[in-house]
Specification:
heterodimer, A: 155 residues, alpha+beta, Beta-Lactamase, five-stranded antiparallel beta sheet, 5 helices, 39% helix, 21% strand, B: 104 residues, 5 strands
Chain lengths: 155, 104
């Protein structure tokens, strides 16, 4: 699935990765890794995603509790976990004082990316069929003519 | 796990494996349960990335924020630390600062 990620979703995540003192980002859907931009191997990213979901399930098991953010501090970095619907964003960052800024950025990212992720996870057969192909003859003719294309200005 | 959603900011101390507070026993029990859960999953997440144990952990809901932090002498169950619980969506760093500077 990771190979099918749309470029816009990945680029949005890359931009988020360059905000603040971020070391790495993981985007997951349910317990599946969508994009792994962590400085760790894939199996570690999967293990991490399972662990954060186990944590959320643990707190929800009592009934009506819905933890949407976890924030853990380690010797070398902090791990910020933000949940929204079926999506999870894990951000590793070094400066504790950026925790709130990154949480808001993560929430905004997850909010704004719902449509992109929906398209990614539920592709329809019609996707892409509305694109019109260029007429091969015109394109070839223009390319072979050796002239610069000139578009006349319509007054 | 706490079913309680208290509104005031309440501090707890962690010492010799015991959670203490001037708040009622029910609140102490609720925080202790959340603290144990956070500590356990902080270690599990740290283990997945070879980061070790978490020295601080926070869980946040729309109307509840729970946090704990050790004071730097270790992250074992007997090591000293502090925690807090507040019935709102608090700022993460602000609450962490309050916990780490809380005078036990």
């Amino acid at each position: 699935m990771a190979a099918n990620i749309t470029p816009s979703l990945r680029s949005a995540l890359e931009r988020l990765k360059h905000g603040g003192s971020v070391n790495g980002i993981l985007l997951g859907w349910r317990r599946q890794v969508l994009i792994n931009l962590l400085p760790y191997e894939e199996f570690r990213a999967e293990r991490l995603l399972h662990a954060v979901h186990d944590a959320q399930d643990h707190f929800a098991s009592g009934g009506d509790r819905a933890v949407h953010t976890f924030w853990f501090g380690y010797d070398i970095c902090h791990a910020l976990v933000v949940f929204r619907r079926d999506c999870t964003l894990v951000i590793l960052h070094t400066r504790a004082e950026e925790g709130d800024f990154l949480r808001r950025a993560a929430q905004t990212f997850l909010e704004d990316s719902q449509l992109l992720m929906d398209v990614l996870l539920n592709p329809t057969p019609e996707d892409g069929e509305e694109t019109q192909k260029l007429e091969p003859d015109e394109l070839t003719a223009a390319h072979d003519s050796g002239h610069t294309n000139f578009i006349a200005r319509v007054l | 796990m706490s079913a309680l959603k208290p509104s005031p900011l309440t501090f707890f101390t962690l010492k010799d494996g015991v959670v203490e507070s001037t708040a009622g026993q029910e609140l102490v029990d609720a925080f202790a349960a959340d603290f144990q859960g956070l500590r356990h999953f902080g270690a599990k997440i740290g283990d997945s990335l070879d980061l070790g144990n978490a020295w601080t952990g926070t869980a946040q809901e729309d109307d509840l924020t729970v946090t704990y932090a050790y004071f730097g002498e270790g992250t074992g169950p007997e090591d000293p630390g502090a925690g807090a619980l507040v019935g709102k969506k608090a700022l993460l760093y602000e609450l962490l600062t309050k916990v780490t500077t809380h005078d036990a």
